[in-house]
C-alpha cells in the first residue's frame, strides 16, 4: 500500500524532508584547562610591580618644580632602582647654554671635587658627557664599571679616587631628552629661551662593592631616565626663560645710584622667580634736588617687567619736569597708564628732597608707607589713603611734607617684603617696625648694613634659602652709591618661595 501524496502548497517543496524539532547540538563548555604556570605568573607579577614602581617614581618627579629638586629626586629614585647607595648627576647641556652643575647623593662637596679630577674619558658620567664612541662604534646610553679596582684599562686616577671615596663599582646613564617634534630642537621657547638641544648630562650611581645592575634593573632605570630627561629639559628651558626675564629686569633698573651731598643711598632688589613688576629709582633733579621712587605693576612675567620699564621711564621724565610736586608727577603717570595700558594698575611712591632746607615732599598711590628711623623715633610716615594708579577714573591724593633729621634713615620698600614674611599685614608691619627699631646705631648709620639687617630680621629663613642654581633662584641686585652695580647672592630661593619682588631703598641723611 503506497503512502498518500502530500498536497502541494505554494512555496513549499514536499520532496524536502520535514525539519526535525530538535535543536542543533551545542558543544558543552570545555573544562577549564591548566592556568599559567608559576613562571608566567611570577613574570606577570614582576611586570605589574615594575609598572607600579615606575608610575610612583615618575609621579614624584613630576611634582618637582626646580632643577635642584628634580636632580635630587632623580638620584634618589635611580639609586633605588639600581640598588646603589650613592651617586651624582652632572648637568651640562650639549648646546653650551647652561646651566652647568653637579649634584651628589651621599657625597659632599669635597667628594665631588675629587671625582671631578678624574679624566672625563675614564669616569662614567664624563664618558657619557663627552659622547665618546664605544668599542663597537656606537654611542650607548649606559656605562658600567662593575669592578673598578680590577679594571686595568681604567685611568689610575679613577682607581685612586674610587679607593679614597670607598666605592668599587659604578653605573651611569645618559640624560637624553626626546627630540623636539619637527626637528625644532634648540628653537626658542618660553620668553625667547632656547630649548635644550642634545644631551643634558649624565647620572652615575656608585656601589660600595663590585657589582652591576641586572638587565631588568637597567631596563627600569633606562625608562625612568628617559622620562626624567624630558622633565629636566622642560625645567632647563624654564630656568633659562627666568634668567632672561631677570636679566631684562635688571637692565631696566638703575645701574648706579646718584651721589647727593648729605645723603647716602643703598638698595636691595630680589626678583621673584617668574619676574615681577617692582621698580626703584633714585635720580638727580634740577637745583641739586633728589627724586626717590618705588612702585609695582600688577602681574608677573615678561609682560609685567616690560610695563614696569615703561612706567619707570615715564616717571623719570615727569620728575625732571615737575618733580617738586609729587602729586602732579603721579597724576600724570596715572593718566598715562589709564590711556596706554588700561588693563593694568600700579602702586607708586615718589619723594622730592631738597638738601639745603632738608625738606622732603612725597605722595603715594596705594603703596606701602615709608618708614623713618633714628635715635628719637621709628615710625611710619602715613601717606594719605589713595587708590593705586589706574583704578579710578580720576586719581588724586594730597602730599606729605616733613624734615628728616640728621642721622635719620628713611626706608622705601615694596609690599613683597611684607608678603614674604608669611604673616598678616598688621603683623608684618609690626615685624618691620621692630627690626628697624632694634638696629644698632652703627648699623642704622650705614645704609648698606641697615638694608642687610632688615632682610635678615624681617624675612624668615625659609624665604631665601641657599640655592645651587643662580638662574632659578632669587637674584640680589646690590648697588652702592659709590660704585657700579654688582650682582650678589646674599640669598636664594626656589621657584615656589614667593611670587613678588622684594625692594628696599634706603636713604641715610648725614
Key terms:
alpha+beta, disordered N terminus
Description:
The protein is an alpha+beta fold and 510 residues long. The N and C termini lie far apart (147 Å). A hairpin with a 4-residue loop joins strand 11 and strand 12. The protein has twelve helices and 17 strands. The strands form three sheets. A seven-stranded antiparallel β-sheet has the order 12-11-14-17-6-15-16. The chain has a five-stranded antiparallel β-sheet with strand order 2-1-5-4-3, with helices on both faces. Strands 7-8-9-10-13 form a five-stranded antiparallel β-sheet, covered by helices on one side.
Strand content: 15-25%
Q: What value does the average pLDDT take? A: 80
Which sequence of SSEs, written as H and E, runs from N to C? HHEEHHEHEEHEEEHHEEEEEEHHHHEEE
**Quaternary structure of the protein:** single chain
Amino acid at each position: 500500500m503506497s503512502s498518500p501524496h502530500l498536497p502541494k502548497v505554494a512555496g513549499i517543496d514536499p520532496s524536502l524532508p520535514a525539519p526535525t524539532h530538535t535543536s542543533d547540538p551545542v558543544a558543552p563548555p570545555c573544562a577549564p584547562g591548566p592556568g599559567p604556570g608559576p613562571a608566567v605568573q611570577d613574570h606577570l607579577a614582576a611586570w605589574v610591580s615594575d609598572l607600579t614602581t615606575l608610575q610612583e617614581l615618575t609621579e614624584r618627579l613630576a611634582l618637582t618644580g626646580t632643577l635642584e629638586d628634580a636632580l635630587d629626586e632623580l638620584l634618589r629614585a635611580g639609586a633605588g632602582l639600581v640598588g646603589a647607595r650613592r651617586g651624582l648627576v652632572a648637568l651640562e647641556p650639549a648646546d653650551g647654554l647652561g646651566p652647568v652643575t653637579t649634584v651628589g647623593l651621599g657625597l659632599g662637596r669635597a667628594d665631588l671635587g675629587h671625582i671631578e679630577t678624574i679624566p672625563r674619558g675614564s669616569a662614567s658620567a664624563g664618558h657619557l658627557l663627552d659622547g665618546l664612541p664605544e668599542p663597537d662604534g656606537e654611542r650607548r646610553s649606559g656605562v658600567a664599571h662593575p669592578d673598578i679596582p680590577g679594571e686595568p684599562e681604567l685611568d689610575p686616577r679613577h682607581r685612586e679616587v674610587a679607593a679614597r671615596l670607598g666605592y668599587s663599582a659604578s653605573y651611569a646613564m645618559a640624560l637624553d631628552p626626546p627630540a623636539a617634534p619637527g626637528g625644532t630642537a634648540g628653537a626658542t621657547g618660553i620668553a625667547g629661551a632656547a630649548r635644550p638641544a642634545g644631551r643634558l648630562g649624565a647620572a652615575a650611581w656608585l656601589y660600595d662593592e663590585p657589582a652591576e645592575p641586572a638587565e631588568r634593573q637597567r631596563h627600569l632605570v633606562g625608562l625612568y631616565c628617559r622620562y626624567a630627561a624630558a622633565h629636566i629639559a622642560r625645567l632647563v628651558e624654564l630656568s633659562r626663560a627666568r634668567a632672561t626675564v631677570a636679566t631684562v629686569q635688571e637692565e631696566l633698573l638703575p645701574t648706579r645710584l646718584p651721589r647727593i651731598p648729605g645723603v647716602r643711598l643703598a638698595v636691595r632688589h630680589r626678583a621673584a622667580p617668574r619676574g615681577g613688576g617692582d621698580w626703584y629709582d633714585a635720580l638727580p633733579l634740577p637745583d641739586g634736588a633728589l627724586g626717590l621712587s618705588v612702585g609695582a605693576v600688577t602681574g608677573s612675567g615678561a609682560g609685567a617687567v616690560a610695563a614696569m620699564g615703561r612706567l619707570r621711564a615715564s616717571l623719570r621724565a615727569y620728575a625732571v619736569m615737575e618733580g617738586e610736586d609729587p602729586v602732579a608727577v603721579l597724576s600724570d603717570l596715572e593718566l598715562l597708564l589709564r590711556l596706554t595700558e588700561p588693563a593694568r594698575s600700579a602702586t607708586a611712591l615718589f619723594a622730592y628732597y631738597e638738601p639745603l632746607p632738608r625738606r622732603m615732599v612725597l605722595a603715594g598711590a596705594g603703596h606701602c608707607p615709608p618708614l623713618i628711623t633714628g635715635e628719637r623715633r621709628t615710625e611710619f610716615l602715613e601717606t594719605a589713603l589713595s587708590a593705586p594708579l589706574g583704578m579710578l577714573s580720576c586719581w588724586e591724593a594730597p602730599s606729605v611734607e616733613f624734615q628728616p633729621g640728621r642721622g635719620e634713615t628713611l626706608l622705601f620698600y615694596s609690599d613683597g617684603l611684607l608678603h614674604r614674611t608669611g604673616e598678616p599685614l598688621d603683623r608684618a608691619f609690626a615685624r618691620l617696625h621692630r627690626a628697624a627699631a632694634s638696629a644698632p646705631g652703627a648699623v642704622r648709620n650705614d645704609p648698606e648694613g641697615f638694608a642687610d639687617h632688615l632682610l635678615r630680621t624681617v624675612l624668615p629663613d625659609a624665604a631665601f634659602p641657599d640655592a645651587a642654581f643662580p638662574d632659578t633662584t632669587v637674584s640680589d641686585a646690590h648697588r652702592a652709591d659709590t660704585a657700579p652695580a654688582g650682582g650678589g647672592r646674599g640669598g636664594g630661593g626656589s621657584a615656589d618661595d614667593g611670587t613678588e619682588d622684594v625692594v628696599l631703598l634706603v636713604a641715610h641723611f648725614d
